[in-house]
Amino acid sequence: MDRVGFKMKLLPGREAEYRQRHDAIWPELSALLTARGVRDYAIFHEPATDILFAVFAKAPGARLDDLATEPVMRRWWAHMADLMETHPDREPVQSALVEVFHMD
Question: For the chain, how far is it from start to end, CA to CA, in angstroms?
């Protein structure tokens, strides 16, 4: 499986709410991500900078290119928009990261 890593930016003082909303992630969003090939998804927070680091495994044949068009994904982004940096359409601002090392 390939891995995907990216970073996002949390707004200051919003970590507790961000964590709370992810603790109650919508089952239909989890089901969509799983159906599309997302596995072992984790998000980390760096408190000093409020950077969020996300990483997940991408299953063979994963279909991720059009996730942004899925209604549940759009609703999730709207739900999270008050907690993080977003584009005008509420999609989180993300920066792709390049894997330079991995050890099993």
Answer: 12
What is the 8-class DSSP label of residue 84?
B
Task: Please say if the pLDDT value at position 104 is more than 90.
Answer: no
Length of the chain in terms of residues written: 104
Total domains present in the chain: 1
Is residue 102 situated within a structural domain? no
Active site residue 22: yes
**From the DSSP assignment, how many helices (H) and strands (E) are in the chain?**
3, 4
CB 67 within 8 A of CB 77: no
Domain CATH number, residue 41: 3.30.70.100
- Residue 25, domain member (yes or no): yes
Q: Which of 22, 45, 79, 87 is catalytic?
A: 22
Q: What percent of the chain has pLDDT over 90?
A: 98
